[in-house]
Amino acid sequence: MKNGREKAMACSGINLIKNGGFTTGLKGWQGKHIYLVPNPLRASDQAVLMGYNSVRSYIRQKVRVRKKLESQCNYYLYFRLFNISNKSEPALLYATVAYWSPDNRPLRATPLILKPPKTTSWFQYFSIIPAPPPQPVKIVTVHFTLVRGTLFLDYLRLASHPILSVNQVVEEKLFSVAEG
Hints:
Distance between the termini: 26 Å
CATH superfamily: Galactose-binding domain-like
Strand content: 35-45%
CATH class: Mainly Beta
Number of domains: 1
Number of helices: 2
Order of helices and strands: HEEEEEEEEEEH
Radius of gyration: 17 Å
Structural class: mainly beta
């Protein structure tokens, strides 16, 4: 697919999130009622536990933008969840990506409301975040708030990708690039 590949070269695909796999602990992250614990499904790996003892929790990262964001690209948010909630208290998670101006005004935000399924393995999520606004962006924030339930969060990634048509996305299989 010549057109899609040519457009793909225009977007770097660089992950803006630092330490999205928590390999260096919680470095770069802020939060409340979050716990770095051994990954329940993969030895010698770590994940963040949220909602332990049914307490509302959040985790966020503020990414200072050093270079101009790729405004000709969408940004894709990837992450995976392992839902261990009780049936009586199904998980409810809010996720938001926001762009902030140099004077700390919100320029654009993309909220997500998730009701992750209870599975026996990691469940992968992928969401298209609209291109950054044309105004200068100083900070990008990624924020997860667990309102209800208990789950593990891991493998967070926010990376630029070309703006493609639905047919191009299906052909390129971009919807399945997150690790398993």
